[in-house]
Amino acid sequence: MAGVAVSTTINGDHVEYLCQPDETLLDVLRDRLGLTGAKEGCGTGDCGACSVIVDNRLVCSCLVLGAEAEGRQIETIEGMAHGDQLHPLQQKFLEHAALQCGICTPGFLIAAKDLLAKNPSPTEEEIRFGLAGNLCRCTGYDKIVRAVQDAANVMKGA
Amino acid sequence: MNFDPRYSGRNFSSVGTRPIRPDGVDKVTGRARYGADFNMAGQLVGRILRSPHAHAIIKKIDTSKAEKLAGVKAVITAADLPDLTDGDAAMYDILDNCMARTKALYDGHAVAAVAAIDARTARQALKLIEVDYEVLPHVTDVDEAMKHTAPLINDAIFTEGLEEKPVKPSNVSKRTQYGHGDVHQGFAQADTIVQRSFKTEQTHQGYIEPHACVASVNPDGTADLWVCTQGHFVYRQHCAQLLGLEASKLRVTSSEIGGGFGGKTHVWAEPVALALSRKAGRPVKLVMTRDEVFRASGPTSATSIDVKIGARKDGTITAAEATLRYSCGPYAGMWAEIGAMTAFACYKLENVKTVGYEVLVNRPKTAAYRAPSAPMAAFAVESAVDELAKEIGIDPVDFRIKNAAQEGTRASYGPVYGPIGIGPTLEAVKNHPHMKAPLKANQGRGMACGFWFNFGGQTCTDLNIGMDGTVSLAVGTVDVGGSRASLSLVAAEELGIDYSHVKAIVADTSSLGYNDMTDGSRGTFSSSMATISAARNAIKILRERAAQMWDISVDDVAWEKGHAVAKGETHGNLGKLSLKEIAAQSGKTGGPIAGHSELVADGAGVSFATHICDIEVDPETGSTRVIRYTVVQDAGKAVHPTYVEGQYQGGAAQGIGWALNEEYIYGKDGRLQNPGFLDYRIPVCSDLPMIDTQILEIPNPNHPYGVRGVGETSIVPPLAAIANAVSNAVGVRMSHIPMSPPRILAALEAERERFSR
């Protein structure tokens, strides 16, 4: 099968790659571009571990084709911190111990970033429903919700 | 130096604080490397072909077409994994589970595997493998499997543990019995007896990271395995034995692990990846799909349990009895035995008897799941205890307090307890504001207790002091939830330095002596014991070096708060030498400074918890919501309290999923119908409330800091606590887990019919 030439922007950098027409964006990120921060927990869009933002929209990258990234703006976990300055969500996840094994953490951080971009002052219920597409099996979500609440407060003050 | 592991009270400076974990930044930036995040030069993609049948003889496998496909570098079947287990039945079962040898024993059982240049070619190759099956009758239900008429899964299984060896094989691999006293006499003394049967369905550990590994076997007999595992030393032993490799030539590196909960304690696909690599002569990456994870890894047992408990009017339990049947998958297990041991462990009983039956079924090989076997037994027992308290007319908390085990109680499974936390957790629950909060219509409150043994085991740790005075701590217990933070705290505590000057890592199998896997809540318990021992050995050397620097006797040097201090009147002018100052001179005073420790961490203190739960049931739909949840558990000593809370919350959430939603659903064809996160629904963020925690600290006398394991006990009470809450809300005793909406509606309907008759 002939490869598809794709020209896109990932975390602000211009990127070009060849991918197969049936290859997912997640596989392109992980296997072709070495961006392994997005994880495959299910491959069916049920766990959110592969969450990325495409043109300001939160998606499961396992449900997007690599070819569909043409001309888009993609944000992944690798672009969340600015240099050595962690994003407030990253910092609050650390302070609140909002991760145990950490496999779901990149997806949660991307989903939470998208949530706060659209709703800077979410209630607990809005956080819980906003993050309901991301599965965590370790924490029971308690500390994740608290970390997002705390980060929202910090970001509003900034 | 002899190490004294006994508890000695002390004022902690590092232990008990809540610093950021050392592996944290890697995990919030996406840099942490898990099983599937590692690659090697020339790596191939491995894929496994799995049986679509629950039970079938494998008559023939033709791999010739797959082998001819361009890009396929190796195809293997059981023939490529010859039996090297030398009569070790447990290892043979693991081998057969990795790759079916003569029969496929469950839907999803591996029958062949390929390694190809990419995933697409590998998938194509699987379709070209022709397997000739003779489909056999199957059985997936635990009670059905025990019947004489059930299809026989393994004709070499004759029930062990009976007075006489049976003449016929059966699906029951073992009968076990625990207890003491005379239950017949005990029940005769009872004023009230509750007797009831319970069922729980099979659940999966549900780790978000599928099993993943990269295997590389070299022509010279050396090999590397990168893998997500709870125990890389155990994986090394398993793989070396199954592949015929020398253990020391197989280096296993544990990746970051994306959840295990017991499900990553024995090998599944790793020997297959190694065999593929050996045949192809190239490294092979093998990653399970989610479908494969559900169909072929994990899960826990499905159970069927009968409980009978009797008590006097004053609330004293006079006798307790349980029969527990646990599914083991298609191989012999010890799951019912663990259930039989834990069932009544919370109580002080004069007459108690439990009998366990290990039952073979055509389902995946049962694996440990967080306090394996205890939640189901606790569900049955704690439900019956609640019902008994109600019938006698005593508050369920007071009833449990009256019968709770204490220091000196002989446990129902044999040993006599030391200082334990069941009474204190119950007292804390009795006085908790949660118990007094008002409830609304359709809401109910329940509580329940839970027990877990905890485990210690073989442990080896290295502590190296750099010339800049910072400390590298190499441990061999895989970090499943923050133990690098807790172990760094322990090293800092013992050495008397700041936490920020310690960095803990998990060393690979070639860098450290053998460690048992991270199971039995042993990670922090056992590795902290070895870390304390290693630090004390390092301190001995630090004192010697300080003595050398001062030119005095080492007997005159003490170690206080991170400093060597000269003792005695003649040394009054010597002041102190910091760890950093001593380390800086180490090149001139005898070379690197390190402490090493290898030990068997005996004396893991048993653990108890009591949970409170409020739920609301929608009588129209049968849907249940948890609206408030409180965990009270004894930690012995909480080394990093935030991660202890995390363990309490995570176990409760898993228990909530088990109680309300999660179950393996098999069709009549014996195939799993819900092998994905859409249909096997684990709790999501919007399903749960905040989970409140209360940490009690009743020191474990067998650990220098009093630490007990904390990881597993929290999943034991939720099934029962929620069942008690639902039963209180709807007025019907729920006896089948999960309490999914159809089951609750059916129970309500049955109750209405009972009243209308």
**Largest sheet of chain B, described in full?**
7 strands, mixed
Question: Total helix count of chain A?
Answer: 5
**Most extensive chain contact?**
A-B, 59 and 58 residues
Average pLDDT confidence of chain B is 97
The CATH superfamily of the largest domain in chain A bears the name Beta-grasp domain
Describe the 3D structure.
The complex is a heterodimer of chains A (158) and B (757). Chain A is α+β, with helices and mostly antiparallel strands and 158 residues long. Chain A folds into two domains: 4-79, Ubiquitin-like (UB roll) (Roll), CATH 3.10.20; 88-157, Orthogonal Bundle (DNA polymerase, domain 1), CATH 1.10.150. Chain A is 34% helix and 16% strand. In chain A, a hairpin with a 2-residue loop joins strand 1 and strand 2 (13-19). A seven-stranded mixed β-sheet of chain B has the order 3-5-1-12-9-10-11, sandwiched between helices. In chain B, a hairpin with a 5-residue loop joins strand 17 and strand 18 (471-475). Chain B is of the alpha+beta class. At the A-B interface, helix 2, helix 3, helix 4 and helix 5 of A face helix 1 and helix 18 of B.
Features of the shown structure:
heterodimer; A: alpha+beta; Ubiquitin-like (UB roll); DNA polymerase, domain 1; 2 domains; five-stranded mixed β-sheet; globular; B: 757 residues; alpha+beta; Aldehyde Oxidoreductase, domain 4; seven-stranded mixed β-sheet
